[in-house]
Amino acid sequence: MNARVAGALYLLTFITSIPTLALYRPVRDHADFVLGAGSATPVTWGIFLEIVLALCCAGTAVALFPIVRRRSETAAVGFLGSRLLEAGLILLGAVSLLTLLALRDDAAGADAASLVTAGHTLVGVYDGTFLVGQSLMPVVNAAFLATVLFRSGLVPRLIPVVGLIGVPLLLASDIAVLFGLYDMGSAPAALAALPIAAWELALGFYLLIRGLRPSLTA
């Protein structure tokens, strides 16, 4: 039962995360968004979806923790901790955009230049939490969970292999983004994220449809 719940929550993380790229376009397209440019409605929906995303991330950790713990205490704690940290960072990013909307609502009579600076700062906070929370933490998650699933044979080994391949690729990409070699939204960053995305999507479908196989190492 826990496995199927985790599978459903993994799939919900995709449903709730992908639309935000488009929903946050008003913030990206309008440097003076905080002054009232662009529509706030899609941004509000994006924030709502990210709150749901954070809850789904935490739910996968809670659902899979007892299963992973039976195979490795260290991996279980590492997976739980990194997944909850991911959820917390997603919520922090959502709060930064909620603050941006609050500034926008109270913009009347305020100094425009100061508001624009504050708005850019809040967007920068969101971008930072995205890099660490939604890009780096999945690397840590996969390192712990994929290792356990590969060794135990609880799912077909091809699925965790894809995750383990993605770990060094996405880690290297995140480091490149951190040092300014390219942007988070660039083609190299998107390509580097594909294996981790494929691993989580395949795991979600398998757990929801099939559950877990008997452990080959039990």
In DSSP terms (H or I, runs of 4 or more residues), the helix count works out at 8
What is the CA-based Rg, rounded?
Answer: 19 Å
How many strands?
0
Share of β-strand residues: under 5%
Q: Please tell me what the overall shape is.
A: elongated
Please, how many domains?
1
The averaged pLDDT comes out at: 93
Helix and strand pattern? HHHHHHHH
Structural class: mainly alpha
Measured as a percent range, the helix fraction is over 70%
The first-to-last residue Cα distance is 19 Å
Major sheet attributes: none
Low-confidence stretches: none
In short:
The chain is built from 8 helices and no strands. The chain is an all-alpha fold and 218 residues long.
Kindly describe this structure.
Helix 1 runs antiparallel to helix 8. The relative contact order is 0.14. The protein is built from eight helices and no strands. The chain has one domain (2-210). By secondary structure, the chain is mostly helical. It has helices at residues 2-17, 20-23, 25-29, 41-69, 73-105, 112-152, 158-178, 187-210.
Fold topology:
Blueprint: H1 2-17, H2 20-23, H3 25-29, H4 41-69, H5 73-105, H6 112-152, H7 158-178, H8 187-210
Helix pairs in contact: 1-4, 1-8, 4-5, 5-6, 6-7, 7-8
